[in-house]
């Protein structure tokens, strides 16, 4: 049991310059006894309102040096404070605020919310067990307008999809990875590096791109690049939900539409997922 969607903004000041972290936290506990379920005895139950208050107090006292460290702080607090807690799991996701720039100059106290993917993390621990940390990015929308196709697929009497050697590749990416046992990592630096790997593997070189024969191959390319460049990552899961675009037929309007006007196919949409880990 636990408390979901604990939302708050943590404001940190260094002189005139302000820093913000707006997060949403879910904190769940498992107790050493199930007497509250079986017998209605609540003597060991930590109220969910108390869980919420603890999260807020930790944010006030410790700040949020990184999402992962804040999740670790929450796990450590419940494990060291309450002997009846057998397991704790914490999920933290961040609102993507970025400092506002005016003529290239960073503003000291103004920010803009940029929807370029939501950062999240999880930390979980069993009593007498290791602290395990996960991190990820979700709702990351990506598109490339060429260098993508889909050919040579299995066909039978139900197949109507034509082969394509040049199409738009567009999708919303969810990516989650495991660091294994918690160590003294620079979580912010690692997360930024993984995000760069994701964008590079999806797009290819900036001057020419890289051909994608399928959504599946794109997912694998992302995972392989992350594992090759970021040794701290042990397992990486990726899910790519596809958005297809159909070329509008403008012959009746007396126009030739050479893939210049397209409409998205919202539903049904395709999806592919894969989990890849080291040996």
From TrEMBL:
It is found in: Peroxisome. One of its GO terms (biological process) is purine nucleobase catabolic process. InterPro entries: Uricase. It holds the Pfam family Uricase. Its EC number is 1.7.3.3. Catalyzes the oxidation of uric acid to 5-hydroxyisourate, which is further processed to form (S)-allantoin. Belongs to the uricase family. This is Uricase. It comes from Peucedramus taeniatus. The gene is Uox.
């Amino acid at each position: 049991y636990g408390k979901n969607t604990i939302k708050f903004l943590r404001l940190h000041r260094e002189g005139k310059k302000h820093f913000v972290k707006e997060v949403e936290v879910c904190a769940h506990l498992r107790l050493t006894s199930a007497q509250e379920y079986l017998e209605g005895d609540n003597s060991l139950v930590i109220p969910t309102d108390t869980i919420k208050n603890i999260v807020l107090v930790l944010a006030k006292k410790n700040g949020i040096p990184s999402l992962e460290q804040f999740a670790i702080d929450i796990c450590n607090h419940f494990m060291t404070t309450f002997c009846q807690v057998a397991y704790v799991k914490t999920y933290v996701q961040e609102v993507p605020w970025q400092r506002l720039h005016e003529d290239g100059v960073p503003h000291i106290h103004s920010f803009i919310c940029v929807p370029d993917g939501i950062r999240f993390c999880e930390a979980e621990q069993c009593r007498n067990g290791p602290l395990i940390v996960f991190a990820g990015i979700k709702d990351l929308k990506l598109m490339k307008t060429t260098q993508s196709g889909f050919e040579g697929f299995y066909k039978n009497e139900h197949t109507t999809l034509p082969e394509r050697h040049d199409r738009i590749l567009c999708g919303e990416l969810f990516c989650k990875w495991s660091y294994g046992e918690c160590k003294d990592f620079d979580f912010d630096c690692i997360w930024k590096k993984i995000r760069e790997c994701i964008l590079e593997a999806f797009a290819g070189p900036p001057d020419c791109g890289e051909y994608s024969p399928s959504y599946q191959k794109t997912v694998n390319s992302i995972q392989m690049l992350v594992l090759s460049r970021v040794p701290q990552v042990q397992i990486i899961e990726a899910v790519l939900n596809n958005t297809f675009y159909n070329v509008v037929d403008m012959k009746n309007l007396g126009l030739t539409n050479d893939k210049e006007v397209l409409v998205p196919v919202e539903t049904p949409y395709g999806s592919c997922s894969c989990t890849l880990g080291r040996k």
